[in-house]
Amino acid sequence: MTHAGIPRHGLALLGALLAALIVAPHFVNDYLLTVLILILYFAYTGQAWNIMMGFAGQLSLGHALYVGLGAYTAATLYVHFGFGPWIGLLAAVPVAMACGAIIGFLAFRFGVAGVYFAILTIAFAEFARIGFDHIAYTGGSGGLFLPVAQYTQNDLWNLRGKPIMFYYLMLAFTAAAFLLCQYLLRSRMGYFWQAIREDEEAARALGIDTFRYKMFAVMISAGMTAVAGVFFAFYYNNLFPEQVFHISRSIELILAPIIGGIGTLFGPILGAFVLTGLSEAMTELLHTLGIDVPGAKQVFYGVCLLVVVLALPDGIWPWFARRLGLARS
Amino acid sequence: MSAFFSIAGVSKRFRGLVAVDCVSCEVAKGEIFAVIGPNGAGKTTLFSMIAGALKPDEGEIMFGHERIDGLRPDEVCRRGVARTFQIVRPFPALTVEDNVMVGALLRTSDTARARETAHDVLRRLDLFDKRQREARSLTLPDRKRLEVARALATAPQLLLLDEVMAGLRPTETDRMVAILRELNAQGLTILLIEHVMRAVMALANRVLVLHHGAPIALGSPAEVTREPAVIESYLGAEAV
Amino acid sequence: MPLDIYLNVGVSGLLTGLVYGLMALGLSVIFGVVRVVNFAHGEMMTIAMYLAIVAFQAFKLDPLVMMVPIAGVLFALGYVMQAGLINPFVDRPEHSQFMLLVAIAIIMVNVLLLVFGPDARSVQTPYAFDSFAFGRIIVDATKVYAGLAAIVVAAALFAFFRFSDIGKAIRACADNYTGALVVGLNVKHLYALTFGIGAACVGAAGAMLVLLIDVTPPLGPQYTLLAFVIVITGGLGSMPGALVGGVLIGLTEALAGLLFTPSAKSMFAFAILVLVLLFRPQGILGKRAS
Question: ipTM value of the model?
Answer without folding.
Answer: 0.92
